[in-house]
Amino acid sequence: MKDSNYLKEHNARSLWHPMAHPADSLKNPPTIVTGGAGVRITDVDGHEVVDGVGGLWNVNLGFSCQPVKEAITAQLDTLPYYSIFRGTTNDAVIQLSEELRDFFEPDGLTRAFYTSGGGDSVETALRLARQYHKIRGEAGRIKYLSLKKGYHGTHFGAASVNGNQNFRAPYEPLLPGCFHIPAPYTYRNPFNESDPAKLAQLCLAALEDEIAFQGANTIAAFIMEPVLGAGGVIPPHESFMPGVREICSKHGILLIADEVITAFGRTGSWTGSRHWGVQPDLMTTAKAITNGYFPFGAVMIAEHVAQVFEGDETGRAAIGHGYTYSGHPVGAAAALACLAETKRLNVAENAGARGAQMHRGLLALQEKHEIIGDVRGGHGLMNALELVSDRASKTPIAKPAIARVQEVAYEAGAMVRVSGPNVILSPALVVTEADVEVILTALDKGLSAAAS
Length: 452
Ligand code: PMP
Fold this sequence. Notes:
By secondary structure, the protein is of the alpha/beta class. The chain has two domains: 31-61 and 346-451, Aspartate Aminotransferase, domain 1 (Alpha-Beta Complex), CATH 3.90.1150.10; 67-344, Aspartate Aminotransferase, domain 2, CATH 3.40.640.10. Helices cover 40% and strands 16% of the residues. The strands form three sheets. It has a seven-stranded mixed β-sheet, with helices on both faces. Strands 11, 12, 13, 15 and 16 form a five-stranded antiparallel β-sheet that branches. The protein starts with a helix and ends with a helix. The mean pLDDT is 97. 4'-deoxy-4'-aminopyridoxal-5'-phosphate binds at residues 117-119, 122, 151-153, 225, 229-230, 258, 260-261, 286. The site of 4'-deoxy-4'-aminopyridoxal-5'-phosphate (PMP) has 14 residues, from α6.
């Protein structure tokens, strides 16, 4: 391999990074990751750390999952690619669909439509939602509702339902007909309400109000993450998602659960929807479906929605949507192996226990560090700190200070993710008690350095 300086220089010269200013990689060269084993990564300088990010919320089984590597290799040897566009299919994708049908049966989801990742899954769900209404003769239902602070990807459709200006403003105008309601974000909200149960009711009332304002018969779908992830890990009160389900059903609006992060155990339940006792109409998945070993995703479809499509005799249900890599046999083989390991290791249970440990540790850090304004999580391995320069005024922390948290935590043995004023912790679901302690200790050092 080329040396570290060569790689840094050429990285800055010849590629742009997602979610970064193009000039930044020269000023602040990114960490060059050269290896991954278990839940640890190694960089080009030989420094090894516990990955507190889990890749990008996706490497739930860690980097050494041998059955997945073997499944990929075996599939490459047999059939490296063939499309599943009308007229052809493959063995791996059929087997996977049967497995997913069993896995998601408690969520009421019985059909799969395959994609190459999270944004593709969101795009697919948004499009299928409109088509569902057209098939049923309600062609006027074209709008989408979503939550402020929600993150759904960066395709035009996904970006249009995103609730964070950073991902919207540079690319406007976005898709017309997308409207946002306040998120149940207890630390900061327009109602000044700090009680999660009361805030959930206020947000639900805002949803009802927006539906009345737009006209229910103009709305195709409401999309939400069961626990908001990239927006800073915002778990709603337990009454929120059931309340959304009730309102959507009352008004004939499809509920899309965006479970790109939460499906396959991250919340401590097998899906985020199940965590809240809700059955969505469509569910987007990606990330942990293949653990990052292959780009892949699936939209899961509720039985009653599937029946509307399958029972159509007008031709309106013909699906004019799909990707070259929909149902990719290597992705499907990887997903089959991931699902088997996910179930065998019962990772949801470990996510619950280790997530609770992490949350307790973060609350203890808040006692010690004034710059921790808010600690969020408590639902599996999705946890975050929101940092402030002043607790009373809740002034967000300055960029260099939070960058310092990350830098020092890394030197001290853990990769943590920084996004705006938030430090996000989403390690693999197979982390041990000791791994969590390494992350907390490293973070403690980072926080001390940022405050000094
Ligand atoms: N939805 C959610 C909830 C996500 O967290 C993400 C990615 N973090 C996406 C959609 C988009 O996924 P991708 O980056 O694979 O397109």
